[in-house]
User: Which sequence fits this backbone?
């Protein structure tokens, strides 16, 4: 079919847009100023405190099991693995914080390894806490079966399954986190002078999720926090509540002062777990539900600030685990005193300046052994 020539031609004047008739407000990306201000305080200062306390506490637990206590029971194996998971967690934390506050300068391999190991340690630590709850339930409520169920081979097998499960749950994190230079929307509105100035700056890389297809992005960005909520919080919380309720009921039936003291310890464990992790997971749940809804800059900034603060509170749990699960026990505190005593003896022997001659020094050491408790064979820092 052919159209007449006059019908094929458009009148350009009919389609000219008069700029005065339209008022466009060009809005750039949200600045998130409140969240940025909080991150400048939380990142370098609060996270540094968490790193120092978590590193010292969990290192002491590992040293105690390596040189003093040994792993003689299922509880020991679980506590050692929790300390390892928390230690790896706090070691990776300052590197991630540093790269979040500045351009990611460590390359693509470190991006995937740090983010992936962070996820692995998060899942393994939470699942191991659930294992400790189950172990205490069996030891107290099912005392008759405890000798058969609470064996070292079983505990090592369970820990292997936990670490393998944590790695499998973290595969999407390993895969989808990428190191790249993002394209910002504001570049489209730059004038020539700003564009030339930006071109002279070094490229700013980030380590974030990157997807090829929108469908994959939608599913993954919903699936990962949903799995973290289900497996990394609600499942351990459910196991802890069920097991510790049964433990408390059993302990209250036994009229014994030590048993009532154990009840207070159990309540402290559950209360600290909920206080540390519940605020962040509620914030994460709200963020996941409203992920693809249109939000104002103020709402998005408030949500980002809430996530930053509550996530930092959740990080505190890795510092409290050694106190709640290890150093509460009398035997563990005795081992800790032994560590301090041995370090004091080693410091006197190798670090203190030599003010006397060799003969005088030997006489001095021999007279001080009875006072300090130090001896040549007294140190437990030998395998």
Assistant:
């Amino acid at each position: 079919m052919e159209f007449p020539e006059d019908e094929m031609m458009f009148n350009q004047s009919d389609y000219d847009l008069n700029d005065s008739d339209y008022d466009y407000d060009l809005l750039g990306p949200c600045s998130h100023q409140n969240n940025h201000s909080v991150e400048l305080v939380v990142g370098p200062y609060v996270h540094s405190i968490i790193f120092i306390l978590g590193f010292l506490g969990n290192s002491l637990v590992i040293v105690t099991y390596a040189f003093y206590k040994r792993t003689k029971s299922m509880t020991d194996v679980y506590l050692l693995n929790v300390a390892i998971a928390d230690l790896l967690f706090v070691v990776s934390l300052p590197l991630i914080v540093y790269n979040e506050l500045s351009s990611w300068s460590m390359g693509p391999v470190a991006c995937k390894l740090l983010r992936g190991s962070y996820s692995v340690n998060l899942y393994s630590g939470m699942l191991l806490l659930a294992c400790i709850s189950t172990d205490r339930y069996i030891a107290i409520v099912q005392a008759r079966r405890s000798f058969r169920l609470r064996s070292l081979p079983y505990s090592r097998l369970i820990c292997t399954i936990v670490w393998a499960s944590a790695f499998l749950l973290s595969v999407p994190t390993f895969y989808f986190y990428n190191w790249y230079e993002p394209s910002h929307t504001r570049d489209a509105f730059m004038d020539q002078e700003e564009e030339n100035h930006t071109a002279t700056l070094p490229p700013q890389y980030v380590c974030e999720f990157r997807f090829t297809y929108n469908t994959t992005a939608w599913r993954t960005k919903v699936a990962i926090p949903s799995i973290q909520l289900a497996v990394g919080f609600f499942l351990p919380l459910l196991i802890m509540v069920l097991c510790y309720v049964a433990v408390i009921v059993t302990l209250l039936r036994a009229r014994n002062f030590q048993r009532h003291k154990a009840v207070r310890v159990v309540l402290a464990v559950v209360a600290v777990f909920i206080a540390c992790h519940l605020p962040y997971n509620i914030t994460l749940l709200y963020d996941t539900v409203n992920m693809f809804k249109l939000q104002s800059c103020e709402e998005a900034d408030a949500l980002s600030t809430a996530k930053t603060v509550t996530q930092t509170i959740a990080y505190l749990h890795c510092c409290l685990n050694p106190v709640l699960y290890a150093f509460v026990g009398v035997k563990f505190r005795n081992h800790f005193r032994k560590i301090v005593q041995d370090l004091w003896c080693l410091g006197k022997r190798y670090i203190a300046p030599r003010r006397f001659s060799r003969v005088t020094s030997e006489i001095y050491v021999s007279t001080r052994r009875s006072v300090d408790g130090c001896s040549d064979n007294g140190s437990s820092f030998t395998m």
In short: Confidence is low (pLDDT under 50) at residues 1-24, 185-194, 355-372, 375-383.
